[in-house]
């Protein structure tokens, strides 16, 4: 059982200070063919979208703002498709200045999507538990022993095991549901995923991935005033309920105490926000976008040899000024390249 005290984690900026509930993916399609008109109609003009090379998902062109992408220029009836990845959701929140307004921004966006007749194709609901009340080993044990009442017929586990001291394990992930299903659930060790020491405490994430009409239903319920935590709990308990083996008929079995306790506290959690994780590649893209022309000017003015000396001196000076923030960014970026595709399931 993870420690109930999480003092170490609370002193770490990379770990949430308390249990929280998040939107961790949102995707939708609108009929509007012009991406700029679509962005404006949804109240997203405050996001600095820029043209990006290439397309995807059947579209020929894209606009991007960090990890928020607008796909456009498809067939006549395809309109525009928006994707906010998990990182994109955090960047969306980060663009809202006042933290109290971030929840309002989410609800305003969802109301705008409904008003625009958007087709919601995916939404992921996540709950981060850092107080030790959601032990991953309890979830695994219930699944392995088949002491679960569920509409799902299958589960899958992923675990990367390090064979050397230099290789970092990324923890265990428990998937419930079919990869083709419209609802999927996953539980995983977020602390291990981030490469953080278990000495800092416990951080387990539970995610509900909703697709197609299930995603549309989630947005509809949120717009009608259903509390976020209550909605997540309802989804989870419908598709995963660890039970005590009291009857052959699982519906007659009582719920395991630890799960009941976790649900009781989780349903009271309101939609919150999180700080975006910064990767080295994000900084590289930022420098390229903001200072590419400036560095080109330097090279043209100095010439190849002098410019090379300038860059060497720049890096040498910068190396002495690197902080823990920069080394953490390198470690997280390296680890992210080894992670299992959570969102691909």
From TrEMBL:
Residues 21-110 form the Rolling Circle replication initiation protein N-terminal domain. GO terms for molecular function: translation initiation factor activity. The keyword Ion transport does not apply. This is Replication initiation factor. Residues 118-315 form the Replication initiation protein-like C-terminal domain. Keywords: Initiation factor, Protein biosynthesis.
């Amino acid at each position: 059982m993870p420690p109930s005290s999480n003092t170490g984690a609370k002193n770490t900026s990379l770990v949430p200070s308390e249990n929280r509930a998040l939107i961790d993916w949102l995707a939708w399609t609108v009929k509007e063919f012009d991406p700029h008109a679509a962005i404006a109609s949804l109240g997203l003009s405050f996001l600095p979208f820029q043209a990006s090379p290439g397309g995807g998902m059947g579209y020929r062109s894209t606009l991007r703002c960090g990890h928020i992408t607008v796909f456009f220029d498809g067939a006549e009836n395809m309109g525009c498709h928006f994707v906010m990845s998990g990182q994109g959701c955090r960047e969306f929140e980060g663009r809202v200045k006042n933290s109290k307004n971030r929840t309002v921004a989410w609800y305003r966006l969802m109301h705008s999507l409904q008003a625009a007749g958007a087709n919601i194709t995916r939404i992921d609901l996540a709950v981060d538990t850092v107080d030790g009340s959601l032990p991953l080993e309890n979830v695994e044990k219930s699944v392995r022993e088949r002491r679960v009442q569920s509409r799902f017929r299958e589960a899958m586990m992923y675990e990367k095991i390090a064979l050397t001291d230099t290789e970092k394990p990324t923890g265990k992930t428990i998937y419930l549901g079919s990869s083709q299903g419209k609802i999927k659930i996953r539980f995983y060790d977020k602390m291990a995923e981030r490469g953080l020491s278990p000495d800092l405490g416990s951080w387990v994430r539970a995610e509900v991935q909703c697709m197609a009409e299930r995603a549309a239903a989630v947005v509809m319920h949120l717009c009608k005033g259903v509390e976020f935590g209550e909605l997540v709990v309802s989804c989870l308990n419908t598709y995963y309920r660890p039970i005590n083996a009291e009857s052959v008929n699982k519906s007659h079995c009582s719920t395991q105490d630890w799960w009941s306790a976790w649900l009781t506290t989780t349903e009271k959690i309101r939609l919150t926000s999180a700080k975006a994780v910064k990767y080295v590649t994000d900084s590289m893209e930022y420098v390229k976008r903001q200072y590419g022309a400036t560095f080109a000017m330097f090279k043209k003015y100095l010439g190849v040899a002098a410019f090379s000396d300038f860059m060497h001196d720049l890096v040498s000076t910068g190396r002495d000024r690197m902080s823990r923030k920069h080394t953490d960014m390198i470690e997280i970026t390296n680890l992210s390249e080894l992670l299992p595709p959570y969102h691909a399931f």
